[in-house]
Amino acid sequence: MVQLVKAVIFDLDGVITDTAEHHYLAWKAIGDELGLPFTREFNEKLKGVSRMESLRLLLSLSKEPLSFTDEELDNLATRKNEIYKQLILEIKPEDVLPGIPELLVELKQNGIKTAIASASKNAFTVIDNLQMNDQFDVIVDAATIVNSKPDPEVFLRAAELLEVDPIDCVGVEDAVAGVEAIKSAHMVAIAIGPAEAFPHADLVLSSTKSLDLQQVIHAQKLKA
Q1: Which residues are tagged catalytic?
Q2: Cβ neighbours of residue 108 under 8 Å, at least 6 residues apart?
Q3: CB-based burial of residue 129 (10 Å sphere; 0-12 exposed, 13-18 middle, 19+ buried)?
Q4: Using an 8 Å Cβ cutoff, are 127 and 15 in contact?
Q5: What does the alpha-carbon distance between residue 199 and residue 189 come to, in Å, rounded to a whole number?
Q6: Which of these, 1, 207, 211, lies nearest to 102 by C-alpha position?
Q7: Of 115, 92, 99, which is closest to residue 19 (Cα–Cα)?
Q8: 4 and 221 in contact (C-beta within 8 Å)?
Q9: Residue among 206, 222, 193 nearest 5 (CA)
Q10: What is the pTM of this model?
Q11: Quick check: 147 and 135 in contact, CB under 8 A?
Q12: pLDDT tens for each residue of 134-188
């Protein structure tokens, strides 16, 4: 088999495990505190977005303009994160999404490097709770980068640490901002979710159940 892929770089939330519910509940608590109509539908807009940008989106739900100092905004974001950190303590190894353990084995067997590129500052905690520390060569989270997705920095940083050219990498995401980041990094983009949501992805799969080494290689060939 011709080696077309040298590394696969995964988003964490919604790709390795589903922490969307934990994020939703944490933001809902802040929204309720502020009297804002935060819904599950609106929560979709926060996928792949940094914490501060998510807070700004949440505040945009107010009918009246809200005025907060930078310190007050930081306190709100910090409080959301503390709620989230308590919720993710519930995450267990069996919460890894379907197909991911098998794919990681396939990648290792074929000498393909792996990394996490997450918009979360809690990526290491989640990976610890999943007991997957030894499954990835590199973990890059929001605490180690300046620019959030859709900026490609987190994916480029992962490729740099893996010592792999970005064009030889495949990125896996479940958020539009994440797919944009992958494409901006000149990597192959696999999206997990509804096809209509990801017109710029090289390959879209409905769930991680369908994600295996052959699909990774197929996505690389589609771009080529």
Answers
A1: 11, 13
A2: 114
A3: middle
A4: no
A5: 11
A6: 211
A7: 92
A8: yes
A9: 222
A10: 0.85
A11: no
A12: 999 999 998 889 998 999 999 999 999 999 999 999 999 999 999 999 999 999 9
If pLDDT is split at 50, 70 and 90, which confidence band does 3 have?
Answer: low
**Three-state DSSP class for 91?**
coil
The whole-angstrom separation of Cα 10 and Cα 188 is 12
Distance CA 139, CA 136 (A): 7
Which residue bears the tokens 């017109």?
199
Contact yes or no for 116/123 (Cβ under 8 A): yes
Name which of 84, 95, 106, 168 is nearest 128 in CA terms.
Answer: 95
Domains and CATH numbers, the chain: 7-18+94-223 (3.40.50.1000), 20-90 (1.10.150.240)
Cβ neighbours for 34, distance < 8 A, ≥ 6 positions apart: 58, 59, 62, 66
Q: What angle do CA 77, 81, 87 make, to 5 degrees?
A: 150
